[in-house]
Task: inverse folding
C-alpha cells in the first residue's frame, strides 16, 4: 500500500465473508513486525474470516530508517486509517499487541472510528508512566547484580554495556519472550526489526520511555471507548496485572482474561487457550453487530407501522426483538446463537399477548413476514379458535387462497 511516498506491506489469510468480519492485527514495538502474528493464522480457518496483518512503516517489509521525525503516534495512526481505506475495511475487529494495543486505544479515543465490531487489546497499556513504574518494580525483584547493571545504564545513558545487555536479556526472557528449537518458524525467522522506530518512538528498552510516546497517557479518557473490548495479559507479562487492571476498570463493559504463566506474548505462551477465547469472542461480536442492525430496523418498523396503525404506542427495539441466544440445555446442537432474528411489533410489545406484525430475518435468506398472534395463552387461544369456527368466513377464504386444500383442526388443544 502506498503511504507517505513509501510502501506498507500487508498480509491476508482466509476468505472474505459478508457474515464474518475481518480481524486486523496491529503488532507491537514500535518496530516489531507482523511475523509473530502468523501463529494466529488458524483463526481464519476456525472462524471463516480474513485475518489481516501488516508491517507498520519502519520495520519488516515496510522497513525505513533515517527519518526519526516519522516515528510518532500520528504517523502510525494515519497509516492504520489509510490501510482501512485501501482495503475497504468498513467493518472489522481490531487486535493490537503491546504498542499495537496502545495504538488501538489512541485510535478509538482520538478518531472515534465507525465500523469497529470489537477491539482486542493484548498486553497493551494506557499509560507510559505506569508502564515504566511497573517495569522498575519487576526489575527490583531480580538479582542485585542485574539491578545494578540496569541502574548504572540508566544513570550513564550507556545502554551498550555488556553487563546491562545481559541483565536486560534476562529481564526480557522473564517477562517478554524467548525461543528454542520447538518455537514456531515465524518466531525464529530473520526479520528487519525497526530499531530506529523503536528508539525514537519508545526508547532504548521497555522501562525507559524517552521517545515520542513517553507522554502517552490515556487512563483518564478510557471512558470514551464505547465498542466491546477484550483485554489479554499474562501473569508474568510486561503488562502487569496493575497495568491491565487500569484498562479493565477504565473501559466500560470490558472483559479481562489474565493468562496464568504467560509472558508478553500470551498468544504464544498460552496459544490454545488464547485462540479458543479469541475465536469465541469474534463469533459472539459478529452476531452482536448483526443484532444491532436488526435493532435499527426494528425502530424504523415501529415508526412505519405506527403511521397506519394507531394502536402502536411508544415502543423500543428491546420491546419488539427476541433474544439471539439459544436454549441449549436439551439440544444436541450447542451453538450459542440462533441463525435468525425476530421482530414482533404490536400495541404492547412482544410479551403483551396482542396480535401484531412479525418479521423473521434468517441468515440464509429465508425471510418471513406474518400477521397474527404469537405465544397465546390457552384461554385467549380458545376464544380465538371459537371465533374463527363461528364466524371466520373471511379468515377461511384467505387461507384457502394461500393454501388450497388446507383444513382447520379446531379440536386439537
Result:
Amino acid at each position: 500500500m502506498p503511504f507517505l511516498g513509501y510502501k506498507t506491506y500487508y498480509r491476508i489469510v482466509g476468505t472474505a465473508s459478508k457474515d464474518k468480519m475481518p480481524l486486523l492485527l496491529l503488532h507491537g514495538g514500535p518496530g516489531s513486525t507482523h511475523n509473530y502474528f502468523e501463529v494466529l493464522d488458524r483463526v481464519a480457518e476456525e472462524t471463516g474470516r480474513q485475518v489481516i496483518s501488516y508491517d507498520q512503516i519502519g520495520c519488516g517489509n515496510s522497513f525505513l530508517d533515517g527519518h526519526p521525525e516519522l516515528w510518532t503516534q500520528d504517523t502510525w495512526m494515519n497509516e492504520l486509517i489509510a490501510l482501512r481505506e485501501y482495503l475497504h475495511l468498513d467493518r472489522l475487529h481490531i487486535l493490537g499487541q503491546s504498542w499495537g494495543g496502545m495504538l488501538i486505544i489512541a485510535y478509538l479515543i482520538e478518531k472515534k472510528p465507525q465500523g469497529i465490531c470489537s477491539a482486542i487489546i493484548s498486553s497493551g497499556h494506557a499509560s507510559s508512566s505506569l508502564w515504566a513504574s511497573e517495569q522498575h518494580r519487576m526489575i527490583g525483584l531480580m538479582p542485585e547484580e542485574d539491578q545494578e547493571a540496569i541502574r548504572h545504564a540508566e544513570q550513564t545513558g550507556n545502554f551498550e554495556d555488556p553487563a546491562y545487555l545481559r541483565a536486560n536479556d534476562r529481564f526480557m526472557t522473564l517477562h517478554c519472550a524467548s525461543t528454542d528449537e520447538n518455537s514456531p518458524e515465524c518466531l525464529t525467522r530473520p526479520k528487519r526489526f525497526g530499531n530506529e522506530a523503536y528508539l525514537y518512538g519508545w526508547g532504548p528498552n521497555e522501562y525507559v520511555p524517552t521517545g515520542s510516546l513517553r507522554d502517552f497517557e490515556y487512563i483518564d479518557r478510557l471512558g470514551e471507548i464505547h465498542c466491546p473490548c477484550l483485554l489479554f495479559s499474562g501473569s508474568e507479562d510486561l503488562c502487569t496485572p496493575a497495568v491491565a487492571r487500569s484498562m479493565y476498570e477504565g473501559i466500560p463493559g470490558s472483559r479481562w482474561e489474565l493468562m496464568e504463566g504467560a509472558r508478553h506474548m500470551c498468544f504464544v505462551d498460552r496459544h490454545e487457550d488464547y485462540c479458543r477465547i479469541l475465536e469465541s469472542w469474534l463469533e459472539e461480536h459478529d452476531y452482536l453487530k448483526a443484532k444491532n442492525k436488526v435493532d435499527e430496523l426494528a425502530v424504523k418498523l415501529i415508526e412505519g407501522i405506527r403511521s397506519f396503525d394507531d394502536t402502536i404506542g411508544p415502543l423500543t427495539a428491546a420491546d419488539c426483538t427476541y433474544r439471539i441466544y439459544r436454549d441449549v440445555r436439551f439440544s444436541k446442537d450447542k451453538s450459542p446463537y440462533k441463525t435468525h432474528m425476530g421482530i414482533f411489533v404490536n400495541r404492547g410489545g412482544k410479551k403483551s399477548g396482542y396480535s401484531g406484525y412479525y418479521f423473521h430475518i434468517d441468515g440464509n435468506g429465508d425471510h418471513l413476514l406474518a400477521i397474527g398472534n404469537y405465544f397465546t395463552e390457552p384461554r385467549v387461544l380458545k376464544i380465538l379458535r371459537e371465533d374463527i369456527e363461528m364466524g371466520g368466513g373471511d379468515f377461511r377464504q384467505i387461507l384457502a387462497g394461500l393454501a388450497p386444500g388446507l383444513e382447520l383442526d379446531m379440536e386439537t388443544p
